[in-house]
Specification:
Strand content: 5-15%
Number of strands: 7
Shape: elongated
């Protein structure tokens, strides 16, 4: 028996959608995000029959639901806390420690959401070309799969949350010079933003299968797009937070705070939408 015909889509060496023929003449379509978030494989019978979805087994479905709920909740709360921290800086008492403390709590939730997102990739049910179902593997807390676009995106997102953690811990330090503030606080902030932006770009490439475009009917696209807007706003905030060595003042403190507030709200909105992208 020959190998089934298959058509691979994606970007570069990364496959994000694979279509293959089935023994009965039908076709199966695996999409990385669809399999990871919904645990589903699209099946079309011969002729003009409508598409149906073959689900992964209950073990995989249970994992995906729990991980999705943890990630979504963590980003909703983390984004809300970041927005609250920026709100305190803008409209509150002006106490830097109070604001940073709220940011730090939000950062812990972002860490949790980033790791849960990585676990969704690591434990996603896998496809087998020629078959009409998804395969569930044993639970893993970690994997190294740099040739998967979804893994790279999730790994960079999680790494970005950890780098933001360095920024937040250093923010508690007192008596720093302008150069020390830029080195210990601003640089990790910018690096974290870059990691978020690259992660979001890869996520867009995944959901669009290599060619970035608007997919207005695709919930996954909206989640990725809103989160990427949040990353752009975070980067604007970080650039505005650079401290002039000569004056010891930020480039624009209002832009920095408003960028953080609006960017954080984007991640909260993305988390709310993520509740609906589940098996």
């Amino acid at each position: 028996m020959g190998r089934p015909e298959q058509h691979v889509e994606g970007v570069g060496p990364f496959a994000t959608r694979v279509t293959w023929t089935l023994p009965d003449g039908g076709t199966a379509v695996w999409e990385s995000r669809q399999a990871r978030r919904r645990g589903a494989l699209a099946i079309r019978a011969p002729g003009t029959d409508p598409v149906r979805h073959a689900r992964a087994d209950e073990v995989a479905i249970g994992r995906l639901r729990r991980l999705n709920a943890v990630a979504a909740t963590a980003f909703v709360i983390g984004g809300a806390l970041f927005a609250a921290g920026a709100g305190i800086a803008l409209f509150g008492s002006g106490d830097a420690v109070e604001s940073v403390s709220v940011y730090f709590a939000g950062g812990l939730f972002f860490n949790t959401g980033g790791y849960a997102s990585l676990l969704q990739v690591v434990n996603a049910p896998r496809h087998r070309v020629g078959h009409r179902g998804l395969v569930t593997h044993r639970w893993r807390w970690w994997s190294f799969e740099p040739m998967r676009l979804d893994w790279l995106s999730a790994f960079l997102l999680f790494t970005g949350t950890l780098v933001f953690g360095v920024n937040l811990v250093d923010s508690f330090l007192h008596g720093l010079s302008a150069q020390q503030v830029n080195r210990l606080i601003w640089v990790p902030d910018v690096v974290g933003c870059v990691l978020f932006l690259v992660s979001g770009h890869l996520a867009l490439m995944e959901v669009c299968h290599g060619r970035i475009r608007v997919l207005a009917r695709d919930l996954g696209w909206w989640i990725v797009a809103v989160n990427q807007l949040g990353s752009v706003l975070f980067m604007i905030s970080a650039l505005a937070a650079f401290t002039h060595p000569a004056t010891g003042s930020m480039v624009n403190v209002n832009v920095a705070n408003w960028g953080t507030l609006t960017g954080a709200l984007c991640f909260s909105v993305g988390g709310v939408m993520q509740y609906f992208e589940r098996p």
